[in-house]
Amino acid sequence: MDFDTHMRAGHPIVFSLIIFFSIIELSISAWLTSRFTANHDYFSLAERDRTRFLLFTSGWTIVFSCLYMFFFFYLPGSVLGSVGSHIFFLFLTWAFWTAGATSITAALSGELNRNTQSDFAYPVQINALQGFAWVTEALVTFALLAVLIRGILAVRRGYGMRGPLIA
Hints:
Blueprint: H1 3-39, H2 45-74, H3 83-107, H4 123-157
Helix pairs in contact: 1-2, 1-4, 2-3, 3-4
């Protein structure tokens, strides 16, 4: 099997997983944001603000991942479906998820365990928020690496970064 076959099968799978986990993250962060806004029971401003950032990041990821799946299937030869466009989108999304996951981890002092659960108003939800942020960040990292490899192959084939993701 060549790389095109793997890309044709893998792109929808990886992007579907990214969208799925982003929807979960969106749900958790939206619920936490609504609770923090209504009750003002956040542990710190850092916890509140970083939860809001993850809400933005998950919304960003859902919208643009759906668009890039559309570009992949229906506009593969266009600039929007190109390797360079995918690299730009995935790098920006990777930066958002890395910043969000590390910032919520830092707000929780690296971990949320039984000894610290009494300090937080919603420990189970915050723990899930942190976990799904790292899962989504790992999926975006994998997608970015696969597209970077594809970009290197496209440049070697002579297409450049404007070339299609699949030949």
